[in-house]
Amino acid sequence: MTQSMENEIKSEDIDPKIFDLYDEFCHSSMSRREFLEKAAAITVVGGSGLLMAKALLPQYAKAQMISFTDDRIKAKYVSYKSPGGNADTMRGYLVQPKGKGPFPAVLVVHENRGLNPHIEDVARRAAAEGFLAFAPDALSAVGGYPGNDEDGKVMQKKLDRDKIFVDMKNAANFLRKHSLSTGKLGVTGFCFGGAVSNYLATELGSNINAVVPFYGSAAKLDQVKNIKAPLMIQYAEDDPRVNAMKDPYEKALKENKVDYQMFVYPNTKHGFHNNSTPRYNKKAAKLAWKRTIDFFKKHLS
Asked: pTM here?
């Protein structure tokens, strides 16, 4: 398998053992070097474990859907106050639609590696749909996203997780009260950001109007009673770590009469919405995003 073949590897070409190793790499302290070394040592069918592993590493430039120069939007980095968080002042990526506003607002929460180019692109996608989008960077407390996910993952792991959640709550309130916001607030997030989305649903009560977590850890079950906003919860079919929480979470949502929908997307893995790696499932991602935007338009208008 040559370098050009590596760039053409699709999800169905990758051995499940390499997918499992990549998931461990993303959610543990495993280094990039260790990940590639372990992949190289795995016997796979139909190719090289090392090249399969390299193909799973994100290619952000190729994955960009909305350019920062797109004439439908205007993007900039802004700071916000975060009392009780990892830093007094935090930073994020604010994207407004064309026009004077005000606009309904959507908070976009990153994965466990800081505000990478993919999440910035997702914020631009939301803004292109007419929302004031804000993607805070948990790593701004330690200098910001470092330019690669491997270092970002290590940096985020060193931060106080509870304080990250406070930083994200402060980001949500900053966005809701922004002069360009109508005050209607939606939240979406991916992996770690999905967990943050569920958390914010329990924390913000009637100050949040719609929540769409993608494959994120469930909210604390004893806090589900505090959820006032409608939820649309997106799951991958093949995601044992997150899906182990699904049934207890759904039971708690029902018991507390929360307005919710759950979708499990067939033939998908954790991270299926992220189009920068072969875990991406175009059909499922397109449907999940359309449902997300329609959901926000319904509840934030």
From this structure: 0.89
If phi over 0 gives left and psi between -120 and 50 gives alpha, with beta otherwise, what is residue 178? beta
Q: Are residues 53 and 67 in the same domain?
A: no
The two tokens of residue 205 are 């009560």
Of all helices (H) and strands (E), which one includes residue 285?
helix 282-300
The Cα 121–Cα 270 span in angstroms is: 19
Cα–Cα separations (whole angstroms), residue 154 to 112, 127, 136, 157: 9, 30, 18, 5
Counting Cβ atoms within 10 Å, is residue 59 exposed (0-12), middle (13-18) or buried (19+)?
middle
CA–CA dist 194, 37 (Å, integer): 30
The DSSP bridge pattern shows strands 89-97 and 73-81 to be: antiparallel
Looking at the fold, whether 155 and 225 belong to one and the same domain comes out as yes
130-158 pLDDT, tens digit per residue, is: 999 999 999 999 999 999 888 999 999 99
Asked if residue 183 and residue 45 are part of one domain, the reply reads no
Q: How far is CA 295 from the centre of its chain?
A: 17
Q: Do 112 and 157 form a contact (C-beta atoms < 8 A)? A: yes
Residue 225 lies in domain = 62-300
Find out whether 158 and 143 touch, Cβ atoms under 8 Å.
no
